[in-house]
Amino acid sequence: MRLVLVSGSARRRELLRGLGLKFKIFVPRLEEKIRPRHYRQDIVRVALAKLDAAPFQEGQVFIACDTSVVCGGQVFGKPQDARQAARFLQILSGQKHTVYSCLALKYWQDQKIIYRHKIVATDVYFREITPAEIAAYVRTAVPYDKAGGYGIQEMRGLFVRKIHGCYYNVVGLPVNDLIDMLRNIKQ
User: Coiled coil: which residue ranges (predicted)?
Assistant: First the structure.
């Protein structure tokens, strides 16, 4: 299988490399707008659009993923600035939120293009975060390229009290689900 990661995410690249997989990278250019009432449908739409944004050839397996953080009916994407990152963390402080990802594959099988996708959900419980901790965190580069404005892997999960579900989903790519999906591709 010739794998192609359709993503600009450094975390997704690191996770795939950590699995010992060889892959190429294609960075799609598209708007990732997620609507609060339609976040499940929208992450599927965006993940599939990423797959279609890349030039496809027989023998390749494209991997795409789109992730959103949802808390109390609000969707938290990537913060635009320090003020928005701080607001996200204030809202998430002391709360449970859910990280939703749509993991999607595109490949050639039985003389046709096949699409497969799966939605993975992980509940994350934050401890109460002080204003000083939020201010220090948003001064780093960490919040700005991550849904919800935080990276569980950075700062040793400083804000996270516990999680239910896949840790790697919160990092940005549900690797166990990916391995299962790749194993189900007929060679």
Answer: none
- The SS3 call for residue 4 is strand
Q: In this predicted model, what pLDDT tens digit does every residue of 133-168 receive, in sequence order?
A: 999 988 887 777 888 888 888 766 789 999 999 999
Q: Is 52 a catalytic residue?
A: no
Query: 53-74: per-residue pLDDT in tens?
Result: 989 888 999 999 999 999 998 9
Query: What pTM does this model have?
Result: 0.91
Number of domains into which the chain is organized: 1
CATH classification at residue 41: 3.90.950.10
**Under a CB-based contact definition with an 8 Å cutoff, are residues 137 and 154 in contact?**
no
Q: Given 42, 52, 66, 81, which residue is catalytic?
A: 66
